[in-house]
Amino acid sequence: MKLSSIPKIKHTEANNFFLLCGPCAIEGEDMAMRIAEKVVTITDKLSIPYVFKGSFRKANRSRIDSFTGIGDEKALEILAKVSSVFDIPTVTDIHESSDAALAAQYVDVLQIPAFLVRQTSLVVAAAETGKVVNLKKGQFMSPEAMQHAVRKVHDSGNENAWITDRGTMFGYQDMIVDFRGIPTMRSFAPTVLDVTHSLQQPNQSSGVTGGRPDMIETIARAGIVNNVDGLFIETHFDPANAKSDGANMLDLAHLERLLSNLVAIRKTITSL
């Protein structure tokens, strides 16, 4: 698919990687607008095609008392406002087939969570909206297996599919990124590297997922060197107090330096 086919996407002529970036979850309007404004400023400066990311609901939680959202319609309306105010596309994840048509009224890209990417009815429902479908590779799946998820989208009459690698389980409490899988998945669809989720440390005894944000630049650099089409980075201006996935998010204050370094690497790679 052509990136330029996404409504409101900018800088597609820059020959840069594209970026899916924002908070893990929509916690409120002020925080979403604050993060979007900062990321738009940075990506416009660096000519990076940008899609704002925010979950309207969190369904995969370790504990019953974990934050799940502020209300579906309220969060989706915030995503729509971000898109309108900053003239950018947005992406959110869906968890049930009924979510597809609802979310498609508000966002430009529908994301299938890694733990649900084999759920045929969910993938088909997303595809049938006509929106871009971002398929997260299951932590338990091989890169080769993702061709079947892509085929489900295509067979539903939608050619607009991405694959996102968010790491592979390594034991019970760690993730790794196997970069051998990047060219394999790119042969099926444009491929994104989810940098921050790849650094999660799940299944902690506390019921709160850990992470290694100190490794974000290491993983992101390796992704660019290995020709990923896009990067997925969750960010927050106060990760320690974020209501979801704070342990592996990038502090928003560090985003510009990181992206500047990655753009420089990308220019070097494409000039070879």
Description of the molecule:
- The longest helix is centred in the first third of the chain and has 18 residues, at 29-46.
- Helix 1 (29-46) runs parallel beside helix 2 and helix 4 crosses helix 5 (146-155).
- This protein has an 8-stranded parallel barrel, surrounded by 6 helices. A two-stranded antiparallel ribbon has the order 7-8. The protein has a two-stranded antiparallel sheet with strand order 10-11.
- It has 8 helices and 13 strands.
- The chain starts with 17 loop residues before the first strand and ends with a helix.
- Strand 1 (18-22), helix 1 and strand 2 form a beta-alpha-beta unit.
- The chain has helices at 29-46, 72-86, 97-104, 120-128, 146-155, 181-186, 216-225, 255-271, and strands at 18-22, 50-53, 90-93, 109-112, 132-136, 161-165, 168-169, 175-176, 191-194, 200-201, 210-211, 230-236, 250-251.
- It is 34% helix and 18% strand.
- It has one domain (3-271): TIM Barrel (Alpha-Beta Barrel).
- The mean pLDDT is 93.
- With 272 residues, the protein is α/β, with parallel strands linked by helices.
Walk me through the topology.
Elements: E1 18-22, H1 29-46, E2 50-53, H2 72-86, E3 90-93, H3 97-104, E4 109-112, H4 120-128, E5 132-136, H5 146-155, E6 161-165, E7 168-169, E8 175-176, H6 181-186, E9 191-194, E10 200-201, E11 210-211, H7 216-225, E12 230-236, E13 250-251, H8 255-271
Parallel strand pairs: 1-2, 1-12, 2-3, 3-4, 4-5, 5-6, 6-9, 9-12, 12-13
Antiparallel strand pairs: 7-8, 10-11
Helix pairs in contact: 1-2, 1-8, 3-4, 4-5, 7-8
